[in-house]
Amino acid sequence: MIGVMFRRMSLWWRFKKLDRTYQPLLEKALGFGNRDTLLKLEEQYWYQTACLLEERREIRQAKILSRNQQKARATHSNGNPHHRGTSHPPYFGSERELVYPQSTTHWGTVILIILVGMVLIVLTTWLVIGAPPMVITL
Questions:
Q1: Cα–Cα dist 124/130, whole Å
Q2: What are the two backbone dihedrals, phi and then psi, of residue 29, each rounded to the nearest 5 degrees?
């Protein structure tokens, strides 16, 4: 894993170095109008870029292979994953739960809505029936 990380860092550094090397040369060749030199530099630049991209692809494949090997080591010979600590068997539910799925209701929200409704009813009743009349004095 650390080896893959160092290879990726090295690859990143070589991409940066390639850009720093060839970009000024390409700009000079373009500025002087030297078409042959420009084409040769571009060919070298793209060839080295392709080599670096191929190496990056190999690093990704190595990373995927190491990940698959780690998964293979974490499974038993019968294919069951190896769990550390306590593990519970999977729960599949009963036939009744499959036919009549249970809703997951948040009871705290339901109770809050009922309480707010009751407060609004009491407040409205008090305002309509029992509130003392307002007297405006000047």
A1: 10
A2: -65, -35
Q: What whole-number distance in Å separates Cα of residue 63 and Cα of residue 58?
A: 9
- Per residue in 69-86, pLDDT (tens digit) is 777 666 555 555 555 555
Question: Tokens representing 107?
Answer: 């009871």
pTM score, whole prediction: 0.46
How far is Cα 105 from Cα 108, in angstroms, rounded to an integer? Answer: 9
